[in-house]
């Protein structure tokens, strides 16, 4: 049993940081009321955490190879805990958003080292088990966030979704210090500061531009300036990576179709499976009037399905990455499509089957993504590979929320404008998208409130349907790309782990040297 304590310590930190990606979704209406937020504020509360996490993962994974994976993981836990405390006592939306950004920095230190830490502590069959458990933890955490958030918000207060991190963080720090061992690679590489900074700027400017696009319009000068700045930063990143001796992301790996397919799948999976849950939560609470717990419980089947699928994949596998990830993405596409049948009279039961199907897809695909990424690079770049796949996953979530937010609000506005009962469709769409459905209904003349209520339900359902259809299309496209690009076989050499503990898992993409 003692050999599994490192896995427990790693999974505890992973569970906390991933729960905090989605835990705020069911608390958003309460936050909006308490802090007086807009849709952009709500999106940033969710998005800034995922964005900070995604933007820093590449640099963290690479630098941790030299500075020590255990040290970076523990420091990340401490930062995460302190930022959670600030989030819990935030007096306004600005402080909350800033604290969420710092929380994401701590989470990057944790998440950017987890895969390499697993590689350090386990080998052969134990490594397969460890990755299966870690994959199940990923799937459960992402889907369980709304349930945990709902319980804490309804029976205590939305601030407790952050207070609860404090005792768990202390436990994780104590366990990590006691059971994890440390390995440092020789510090012979120059730190790729230009790559780290330019990637962070590119990701941040792009996400901010997408969020501003549906408030200031796509052609607004500031929006276009943000997109241009993001493109410039991306060019700087590509140049920096091509010229650096030891880049945070080895661009030559993208010459291999398998690596490109895995990274693209990671980007699209997280967007298609989880980004729309923010709007599902707003629909369940602000339109249907469910409490946070009831809203969270409607998403619980997704959590259970993800756990079961991930556990079965670990027990019955290993599966070829192309098969596991491709089928998982097809299930996510089918699940989103099954949910896209809402109308003004729909209830939470309408989306449950689709959420279960999506959960099965998440559980099937997530473990294989990580194993395949780690196996696709030389052993000494294990931290970089782990950081890369997790970066693309979280970046997909951050960009997904921003893109879906623009699509969602545009569709709401289109329906309101076509009906004519709401005098200012643009303002009404912003209010509905910000979780203020009842305020829109109450502001209408008494004799028209029933009609306006039906219109609000129709507009929200139509917008959510459109968002879900886009999510389904994204997942289906990613599945096709995986089937075309990713190799179908598994590597079964049974080689022992390398002395640094970084080697690839037994199964996944063939481990080849960089061309």
UniProtKB/TrEMBL annotation:
<dbReference type="InterPro" id="IPR020846">
    <property type="entry name" value="MFS_dom"/>
</dbReference>
<feature type="transmembrane region" description="Helical">
    <location>
        <begin position="7"/>
        <end position="28"/>
    </location>
</feature>
<feature type="compositionally biased region" description="Low complexity">
    <location>
        <begin position="427"/>
        <end position="439"/>
    </location>
</feature>
<keyword id="KW-0472">Membrane</keyword>
<dbReference type="InterPro" id="IPR004638">
    <property type="entry name" value="EmrB-like"/>
</dbReference>
<feature type="region of interest" description="Disordered">
    <location>
        <begin position="419"/>
        <end position="446"/>
    </location>
</feature>
<dbReference type="Pfam" id="PF07690">
    <property type="entry name" value="MFS_1"/>
</dbReference>
<protein>
    <submittedName>
        <fullName>MFS transporter</fullName>
    </submittedName>
</protein>
<feature type="domain" description="Major facilitator superfamily (MFS) profile">
    <location>
        <begin position="6"/>
        <end position="490"/>
    </location>
</feature>
<keyword id="KW-0812">Transmembrane</keyword>
<feature type="transmembrane region" description="Helical">
    <location>
        <begin position="71"/>
        <end position="91"/>
    </location>
</feature>
<keyword id="KW-0046">Antibiotic resistance</keyword>
<feature type="transmembrane region" description="Helical">
    <location>
        <begin position="459"/>
        <end position="484"/>
    </location>
</feature>
<feature type="transmembrane region" description="Helical">
    <location>
        <begin position="323"/>
        <end position="342"/>
    </location>
</feature>
<feature type="transmembrane region" description="Helical">
    <location>
        <begin position="158"/>
        <end position="181"/>
    </location>
</feature>
<feature type="transmembrane region" description="Helical">
    <location>
        <begin position="97"/>
        <end position="119"/>
    </location>
</feature>
<feature type="transmembrane region" description="Helical">
    <location>
        <begin position="131"/>
        <end position="152"/>
    </location>
</feature>
<dbReference type="InterPro" id="IPR011701">
    <property type="entry name" value="MFS"/>
</dbReference>
<feature type="transmembrane region" description="Helical">
    <location>
        <begin position="395"/>
        <end position="412"/>
    </location>
</feature>
<feature type="transmembrane region" description="Helical">
    <location>
        <begin position="193"/>
        <end position="211"/>
    </location>
</feature>
<keyword id="KW-1003">Cell membrane</keyword>
<keyword id="KW-1133">Transmembrane helix</keyword>
<feature type="transmembrane region" description="Helical">
    <location>
        <begin position="296"/>
        <end position="316"/>
    </location>
</feature>
<feature type="transmembrane region" description="Helical">
    <location>
        <begin position="261"/>
        <end position="284"/>
    </location>
</feature>
<dbReference type="InterPro" id="IPR036259">
    <property type="entry name" value="MFS_trans_sf"/>
</dbReference>
<feature type="transmembrane region" description="Helical">
    <location>
        <begin position="354"/>
        <end position="374"/>
    </location>
</feature>
<keyword id="KW-0813">Transport</keyword>
<feature type="region of interest" description="Disordered">
    <location>
        <begin position="493"/>
        <end position="515"/>
    </location>
</feature>
<feature type="transmembrane region" description="Helical">
    <location>
        <begin position="48"/>
        <end position="64"/>
    </location>
</feature>
<feature type="transmembrane region" description="Helical">
    <location>
        <begin position="217"/>
        <end position="240"/>
    </location>
</feature>
């Amino acid at each position: 049993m003692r050999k599994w304590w490192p896995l427990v310590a790693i999974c505890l930190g992973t569970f906390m940081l991933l729960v905090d990606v989605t835990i705020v979704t069911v608390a958003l209406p309460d936050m909006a009321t308490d802090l007086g937020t807009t849709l952009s504020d709500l999106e940033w509360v969710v998005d800034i955490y995922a964005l900070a996490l995604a933007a820093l993962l590449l640099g963290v994974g690479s630098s941790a190879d030299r500075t020590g994976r255990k040290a970076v993981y523990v420091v990340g836990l401490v930062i995460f805990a302190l930022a959670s405390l600030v989030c819990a006592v935030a007096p306004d939306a600005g402080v909350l958003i800033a604290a969420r950004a710092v929380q994401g920095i701590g989470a990057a230190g944790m998440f950017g080292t987890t895969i390499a830490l697993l590689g350090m502590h386990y080998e052969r069959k134990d490594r397969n088990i460890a990755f299966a458990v870690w994959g199940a933890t990923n799937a459960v955490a992402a889907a369980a966030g709304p349930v945990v958030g709902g319980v804490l918000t309804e029976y205590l207060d939305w601030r407790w979704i952050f207070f609860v991190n404090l005792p768990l963080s202390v436990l994780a720090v104590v366990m990590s210090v006691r059971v994890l061992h440390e390995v440092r690679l020789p510090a012979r590489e120059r730190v790729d500061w230009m790559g780290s900074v330019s990637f962070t700027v590119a990701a941040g400017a792009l996400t901010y531009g997408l969020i501003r696009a549906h408030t200031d319009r796509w052609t607004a000068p500031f929006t276009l300036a943000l997109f241009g700045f993001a493109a410039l930063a991306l060019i700087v990143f590509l140049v920096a990576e091509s010229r650096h001796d030891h880049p945070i992301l080895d661009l030559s790996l993208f010459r291999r179709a398998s690596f490109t397919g895995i990274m693209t799948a990671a980007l699209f999976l997280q967007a298609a499976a989880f980004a729309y849950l923010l709007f599902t939560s707003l629909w369940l609470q602000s339109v249907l009037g469910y409490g946070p717990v009831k809203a969270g419980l409607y998403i619980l089947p997704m959590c259970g399905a993800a756990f079961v699928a991930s556990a079965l994949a670990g027990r019955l596998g290993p599966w070829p990455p192309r098969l596991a990830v491709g089928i998982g993405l097809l299930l996510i596409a089918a699940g989103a499509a099954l949910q896209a049948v809402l109308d003004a009279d729909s209830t939470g039961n309408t989306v449950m089957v689709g959420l279960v199907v999506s959960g099965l897809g998440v559980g099937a695909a997530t473990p294989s993504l990580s194993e395949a990424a780690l196996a696709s690079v030389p052993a000494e770049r294990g931290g970089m590979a782990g950081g890369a796949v997790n970066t693309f996953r979280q970046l997909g979530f951050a960009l997904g929320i921003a893109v879906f937010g623009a699509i969602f609000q545009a569709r709401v506005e289109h329906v309101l404008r076509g009906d004519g009962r709401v005098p200012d469709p643009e303002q009404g769409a912003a209010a509905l998208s910000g979780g203020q459905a009842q305020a829109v209904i109450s502001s209408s003349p008494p004799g028209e409130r029933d009609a306006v209520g039906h219109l609000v339900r129709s507009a929200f359902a139509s917008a959510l349907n459109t968002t879900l259809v886009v999510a389904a299309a994204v997942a289906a496209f990613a599945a096709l790309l995986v089937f075309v690009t990713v190799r179908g076989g598994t590597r079964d050499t049974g080689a022992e782990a390398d002395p640094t503990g970084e080697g690839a898992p037994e199964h996944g993409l063939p481990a080849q040297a960089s061309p």
